[in-house]
Design goal:
Blueprint: H1 2-16, H2 19-32, H3 35-42, H4 49-56, H5 60-79, H6 90-97
Helix pairs in contact: 1-2, 2-5, 4-5
Organism: Aeromonas media
Protein name: Replication protein
């Protein structure tokens, strides 16, 4: 089931083509999936920006700019006193239940 969800998520990110969402997805997949799952599904232990850009039809530079934009957004939120919400642990908890 998890592999199908990851596949659908990847398909959606590719269709949307939004670099910031694609970079966020890469980070989430690196955090949520185990090394073994990434090796089985992507043949990579870690999903680098180079690899992820090729998979999603973007350039490495587009993902780097997206990462920079996300970082600037977080810094701006901190300056304005906004508290960033941590990423949901739903997937980590779900995988731990198995």
């Amino acid at each position: 089931v998890e592999q199908h969800l990851a596949g659908e998520w990847l398909r959606l990110m590719t269709l949307l083509g939004e670099p910031r969402l694609i970079e966020c997805s890469r980070r989430i997949f690196n955090r949520v999936l185990t090394d073994e799952q990434r090796l089985n599904w992507f043949q990579k232990k870690r999903l680098s920006q180079d690899y992820w850009a090729k998979v999603c039809g973007l350039s490495r530079e587009q993902l780097a700019h997206a990462q920079e934009a996300l970082s600037k957004s977080r810094q701006k939120d901190k300056k304005n006193g906004m508290v960033s919400v941590p990423e949901p642990n739903f997937f980590l908890q779900r995988l731990a239940d198995e």
